[in-house]
From TrEMBL:
Cofactor(s) needed: Zn(2+)
Family named by the database record: Belongs to the zinc-containing alcohol dehydrogenase family.
Keywords, comma-separated and alphabetical: Metal-binding, NAD, Zinc
SUPFAM superfamilies in alphabetical order: GroES-like, NAD(P)-binding Rossmann-fold domains
Sequence ranges assigned to domain Alcohol dehydrogenase-like N-terminal in this UniProt record: 24-137
Ranges for domain Alcohol dehydrogenase-like C-terminal: 186-286
Protein name per UniProt: Glutathione-independent formaldehyde dehydrogenase
One Pfam entry name: ADH_zinc_N
Length: 379
């Protein structure tokens, strides 16, 4: 089969590799029809993780089941399925509580497994023609009839739509609340859409990229361009000096100042400054336990110079971590089916798998107009 293989920093190629296959009776084999490039892939692409050369990337996957293991009972050959990026068993202590992003079975010795990702277990990704799906009865979201026409919407259920939603839940958003979202990448835009769905009164999205801010505005958010003027000051102006009721971090450890230089503590300290006293902060942007390629000594050790005193004095709360996709994907799918959510509106480029390297280079450069890339292995 053809697959997107990591060769080294800023170097991915589409190679012929051995076909993915059923390895355990609880697996299914999926023929991938849509698979996205994610901001999380860029951390690996840029050489800022420990991912091994030869890894097949791709954790935002949708396709059709073409073979089922002998122990699979619910999922059938021919089902069109969207796969949560988390691989989870369904029966461990964390999965039982719905915390499938922290499964204790799928990546022994760690909490959490994923397709094609650094440190998330031996699983290959789905930027390929075929994908092996473990614990298939638990992990597959079987899509309704007609899903093919909204495939670019449904594929967002694999990660960014639930992840954006998770950011708002970690932040404790309530109907009527104002919310500030740092990052207008795909995740931040999905957090904005999720906040709208939940009845936020004011949604403010901070970034420097005009194409991304334009999408935020289309979603119903106030775009906050902090290229020339402090984003924090603008949020305070929009909230009578008090700060937003809650806030979301949708950037992660490679966050930058307006000159494009990495400042690892920037978004976290900006959140403390622009969320009101007692407000909640949801952090889904990825932070790493170590980052040898970081710009400062603290960040190399996975540490931040965090304004903890201000955070404490304001009585704020923080929730963090990988999204438990299965907590949300079934209900968010119903919103897509009902026409009440259209996450595909952020897709800028639909490419055949063969053009994946081009897609990576442009999305990584945050080139104007490259807001979300979906790959179509069958085309
Ligand atoms: N927790 C999870 O489950 C989960 C799932 C998916 C993605 N992620 C993470 O979410 C983050 C965002 O993903 P994405 O796909 O949207 O990536 P992306 O890189 O396309 O978007 C990040 C955006 O943040 C902006 N940005 C950079 N510095 C900023 C700053 N100081 N203030 C405001 N905006 C700033 C960039 O201009 C960019 O538009 C990444 O860290 C990714 O790994 C986490
Ligand atoms: Zn992703
Ligand atoms: Zn589990």
């Amino acid at each position: 089969m053809k697959a997107v293989v990591y060769k080294g920093p800023r170097d991915v190629v589409v190679n012929n590799v051995p076909d993915a296959k059923i390895e355990k009776p609880t697996d299914v084999l999926v023929k991938i029809t849509t698979t996205n490039i994610c901001g999380s892939d860029l951390h690996m692409y840029e050489g800022r993780t420990s991912v091994e050369k030869g890894k097949i990337f791709g954790h935002e996957n949708l396709g059709v089941v073409i073979e089922a293991g002998t122990a699979v009972e619910r999922v059938k050959v021919g089902d069109r399925v969207c796969l949560p990026f988390n691989i989870s068993c369904g029966y461990c202590e964390n999965c039982e509580r719905g915390l499938t992003g922290f499964c204790l079975t799928a990546n022994p010795g760690n909490a959490g497994a994923a397709y094609g990702y650094a440190g998330m277990g031996p699983y290959n990704g789905g930027q390929a023609e075929l994908l092996r799906v473990p614990y298939a009865d638990f992990n597959c979201l079987v899509l309704p009839p007609g899903a093919e026409e909204k495939e670019n919407d449904y594929v967002m259920l694999s990660d960014i739509f639930p992840t954006g939603y998770h950011a708002t839940r970690l932040a404790g958003l309530q109907p009527g609340d104002s919310v500030v979202i740092y990052g207008a990448g795909p995740v931040g835009l999905m957090a904005a859409m999720s906040a709208r769905i939940q009845g936020a009164s004011k949604i403010m999205v901070v970034d420097t990229h005009k194409d991304r801010l334009a999408l935020a505005e289309k979603i119903g958010a106030i775009p906050i361009d902090d290229t020339d003027q402090s984003g924090v000051d603008q949020i305070l102006t929009h909230t009578d000096g008090h700060g937003a009721d809650c806030g979301c971090e949708c950037v992660g450890y490679q966050c930058c100042n307006r000159a494009g230089h990495e400042v690892p503590n920037l978004t976290m300290n900006n959140l403390v400054a622009s969320v009101k006293a007692t407000g909640g902060i949801g952090v889904v942007g990825v932070f790493m336990p170590e980052d040898p390629g970081a710009v400062d000594e603290l960040a190399k050790k996975g540490q931040l110079a965090f304004n903890f005193g201000e955070f404490f004095t304001k009585g704020q709360r923080i929730g963090t971590g990988q999204c438990n996709v299965k907590l949300y994907n079934r209900n968010l799918a119903k919103l897509i089916a009902a026409g009440k959510a259209n996450p595909s509106m952020i897709v800028s480029h639909e490419l055949p798998l063969d053009q994946a390297a081009d897609g990576y280079a442009n999305f990584d450069a945050r080139k104007d107009g490259w807001t979300k890339v979906v790959l179509k292995p069958g085309k």
